Structure formats: C-alpha cells, structure tokens
Amino acid sequence: MHTISELRKKFVAGELSPVTVFDEAIATITAKNGNINAFLAVFTEARDEAVAAEARYKAEGDAAPALLGIPLAVKSNILIKGKNATAASKILENYTATYDATVIARLRAAGAIFIGATNMDEFAMGGSTENSAFGPTKNPLDTKRVPGGSSGGSAAAVAMGAVPAALGTDTGGSIRQPASFCGLVGFKPTYGAVSRYGLMAMGSSLDQAGPLTHTVEDAELIHSIISGTDSYDATTLTKDTYPEVPVKDKCVFGVPRKFLADGIDPDVLDTFNAHVEKLKAEGHTVVDIDLPVFEKGLAAYYIVMPAEVSSNLARFDGMRYGLSVEGDNLLDVYQKTRAQGFGKEVKRRILLGTYVLSAGYYDAYYGKAELVRTKMRAELAEVFKTVDVILTPTAPTPAFKIGEQEDPLAMYRQDIFTVPVNLTGVPTLSIPMGTVEREGIDLPVGVQYIAPHGGDARLFAIGKKVYDERQ
C-alpha cells in the first residue's frame, strides 16, 4: 500500500485510480482479515465514493480535496453515521451510529473514504486488543503476537497493507503503543487539539483521536484536517490557549535516565540508546533530566482513568440504547444487562473507579491522584524551559505473545512511558526506532518524542527529519 502523499500524486497525475486502490484494499481485507481480525465491519458499499472520487480528479486535478479517494480505517469507538459502532463490546453489538463524529465529518469533507471499522480492546480498555468481545487481533508482522492496544485493529489494518492510514484513539498510549508494536507512526495530539465529539468516552480528560500511518508527513496531514476548535466540544483549544512553540532545526533532547532504569527490556534500551546516538551525530544536543513526579504517572493514571470510566460507562444501562436484558425490576435489568454486556476488563475498571470515587476514599485516592497530576504538569513546564523535546521508548518491550500477559498489573506496566503524557495533556509522536529479534523475527520498537503543550508542529518537523528523510 502506498502512503497518502504517494496516492495523492498518482491520483492527480492519472497514474492510479481511486477505484483500483479501493478494490485492492477490499481484496487485501478479504484475503487477510480472517486471520488477522483487524476489521469488525467492512464498508464495501463505499466503492461508489471511489467512483465519484475518480470522476472528480478528472475534473479538478490538484484542486481536489486533500484526501479525496484515500481509503481509511476507523476505530470502532468513533461514530460514522449509519454504520455499526460497537467499541468491540457485546453491549453495543447492534448499535448503529446516528451522527458523524467531528473527526469523521472533517475527514469526509476532505474526501476520505471510510472502508471499515476496526477491532479494539472493549471500550478502549487494554493494551493488546485481546479484550475485544469479538476475538483478539493478531500482529501482521508475527501472528503469534499482539498488535498492541487499544487501537490494535487500526494499527493492524495499516500494517497488513489494507489502508495507508487509520484513525485511533489514545487515552493512555492506545495509538502510540500499537504504532510501536506494528512499526508505524502514531500521534497523540495536545489534549483539546482534536474534538472528542462523537468519540465514545472512556476517560474524558484523557481521550484524544489521532492517526496511525507509515510516515510522519501523512500523520501531520490527517492531524491538520481533524484538529481545530469545535462548538460541540467545549474542551477544544483556540489559537490562544497555549503560547506558540517554535519549530527548531537543532533541538535539545532530554532523556529521563532514572525513568528508564526499571522494567525495560535490555534490547529495547540498547535500540533506544542507538537512536539517541544518531541524534547526537546529526548535531542535536542530548542531556539527562529528572522527572521524579512524572515517573509516578502510572499509579496516578490507574486511579484517574477508572474513575472516569465508572462515570462514563454508567450510561450503558439497557434503557436507552444497546443491549437490554429483561429482568424482574429496573435494578434487575441494569444488573443483568451490564453483567452480560461488559467484559471482565471493563468490569474491573468500573469497580476500581467506583471504589476510588466512593465516600471515604475520594480524598484518599482520587483527590491525591489529581494533585499528582497537577504537579506533573508543573514539573514538565519547568523541564521544558531547558529542553525542547523529551525522549523515552514508546513501550518497555516489543510486541508480546497473545495470552502471555495474563496478570492485569503486568499488562498495566506496558503503559509506563505513555500514560504520563495523557495525564499532562502534552503532545507525543511515536516513530519506529529499530527492531529487536525474537524467535528469528525482527520486531519493531518505537521511540516517543514529547513536546510542550501546543508543540504538535515541533514534533512533526522533527519527526519528518529524523524518520521520513531516513527512509
């Protein structure tokens, strides 16, 4: 599969047809999805849009919209009007979206063709896409292994060559970790840069939609289309929300060495160190930094996030939409619907969230976690006075085998480098930094670049230089 920029050039030149690309995408899905399970639904009827796009290119040429005729996959917790949106949960198995999410409306206006809804961890709760009610997704690079999560279906859709890009959501690393495991570029924008209207809420103060692509250039293009203030989402940013973050040719990178000392795979650390040396060789400055509060992000996240999950998923009660199981009374309907409709990881997080919000425990747990969150933001603001970008591995390991991480706490530790970013709301870009060998297969691993609030453009500029230009 070509990149978006390559497809666009070929469409404009008449060297390739949107219909041909659509048909090839469907053929790839037909051939591979039975094994990979990246897609929960495939929109073959969208071929009519490819036919219309082809005619439009003939009439408009380079003046056509930026994504005209480009097939995209969309995570199943993002609403597309008239399409099934399950969030990979039995409780929404037969739910059809009644409106477009803002990100979908903006991509549609840019000419994108939505080819299917992708698998995910149920309601975005997980880091492996094993928590789907419709079966796990496999990593196309090694089908014994997970593609990451919760946007694993979107990552697999791109990695298996079905589409040039896909849309995911990132609450604690759910775009970046799958990007790392599947050898892709994944971008989590500044919180509020992209509207959450039409995204099924998991953690309202954490969720952001973003792209999974083969190049930073393509990620930047998609972000430029889906970002911006939205009257339907009061948390979206304005141009004046944060001070301008300048783009620099040579940067000062900060590496939190103490943060990398515990629990990281030695091969991943070696690959990270090699990446750092490349940056030095290219004229950048790399310094060690301390982030003692930032390092506590994992503990704080697994209090804040379940609390928001408990609140957001209260709406799934069998009364308004989705699954409804008959009971003897109203409470019985609630209990039976949620017991049958939710999977074990969702139930685990609802229970934990309800506990930390309950009387007598709110101040002891949730209140303190929010205090840590405030201190993390202050710590980052101070560090960004001396460095331009912070570097860490995206994940502490390469893709692990399906069924290997049975301990929930061990699974949560996979998020150690990603969740502090969502708690603080800063933007992050994950790019491939190399591979590590496992059982004769070279598995990709990623590095994440963290910028100050509003520093999205800085990340794209750096990413294009250190990744796109090296390819």
TrEMBL record:
One annotated GO biological process:
translation
Q: Where is the Amidase domain?
A: 25-459
Origin superkingdom: Bacteria
Its Enzyme Commission number?
6.3.5.7
One of the Pfam families matching this protein, by short name: Amidase
Keyword terms of this UniProt record: ATP-binding, Ligase, Nucleotide-binding, Protein biosynthesis
Recorded GO MF terms: ATP binding; glutaminyl-tRNA synthase (glutamine-hydrolyzing) activity
Q: Which InterPro entries is this protein grouped with? A: Amidase, Amidase_CS, Amidase_dom, AS_sf, GatA
Active site at: 75, 150, 174
GO cellular component terms listed in the entry, alphabetical order: glutamyl-tRNA(Gln) amidotransferase complex
As its record notes, the protein acts as a catalyst of:
L-glutamyl-tRNA(Gln) + L-glutamine + ATP + H2O = L-glutaminyl-tRNA(Gln) + L-glutamate + ADP + phosphate + H(+)
Binding partners and assembly? Heterotrimer of A, B and C subunits.
So what family is this one in?
A: Belongs to the amidase family. GatA subfamily.
Q: What does this protein do?
A: Allows the formation of correctly charged Gln-tRNA(Gln) through the transamidation of misacylated Glu-tRNA(Gln) in organisms which lack glutaminyl-tRNA synthetase. The reaction takes place in the presence of glutamine and ATP through an activated gamma-phospho-Glu-tRNA(Gln).
HAMAP family the record matches: GatA (MF_00120)
What this protein is called in its record is Glutamyl-tRNA(Gln) amidotransferase subunit A
**Organism annotation:** Candidatus Kaiserbacteria bacterium RIFCSPLOWO2_12_FULL_45_26
Q: What is the lineage of its organism?
A: Bacteria, Candidatus Kaiseribacteriota
